[in-house]
Specification:
about 170 residues, alpha/beta, 6-stranded parallel beta sheet, 6 strands, about 15% strand
């Protein structure tokens, strides 16, 4: 029996539309910003801290939309990989995060790892699908779901249809 390769998939802005909901939350709190204005992580931009914590504890995590094309592409990848939903969200978000996964990707095991690189190395992951350069730039095989903040990524970058086909062509 051939052992399937492990592919880790980030939740926020890869399968879950985190940024859109957070931008709406910021707007509701007097901070106007558009998706294309995001040039780095919310921490780098000074938009984390208390505001982020308030958002994460608001219950919004369990009701976010699914990223377009992700369901179909993730199912396609299941034919060749063992998949894990991987997140660096704080532990206090576990209930809302698990509720979202169960409602949208119930077949994906969920792993919380504050250091995704260490986790991927520990479990021998074949690759990582993510949107954040800090993770993508430090794994052997990183695949970026295209977002304004990862335009500079030199590896495979695109929408879910492109990324899933690219990955499947590698195996």
């Amino acid at each position: 029996m051939v052992k399937q390769k492990l592919l880790c998939i980030d939740i926020d802005d890869c399968i879950c539309s985190f940024t859109d909901d957070y931008l709406q939350f910021l707007q509701n709190n007097g901070i106007g910003m558009k998706r294309e204005d995001i040039i780095g992580s919310f921490t780098e931009m000074g938009l984390a801290g208390e505001l982020m914590e308030k958002f994460l504890k608001s219950g919004a995590l369990s009701t976010m939309k699914v990223v377009e094309g992700s369901r179909k592409s993730v199912r396609r990848l299941l034919n060749k990989f063992v998949l894990v939903a991987l997140t660096a969200r704080p532990v206090y978000t576990q209930k809302d995060t698990m509720d979202w996964i169960l409602n949208n990707f119930s077949y994906l095991p969920l792993v919380f790892a504050r250091d995704k690189i260490a986790y991927c190395k520990k479990v021998g992951a074949w690759g990582l699908v993510d949107d954040q350069l800090r993770w993508l730039d430090n794994v052997d095989r990183g695949f970026a779901i295209a977002q304004p903040w990862n335009n500079g990524y030199e590896g495979a970058r695109g929408d879910w249809d492109f990324i899933s086909k690219f990955i499947l062509n590698m195996v």
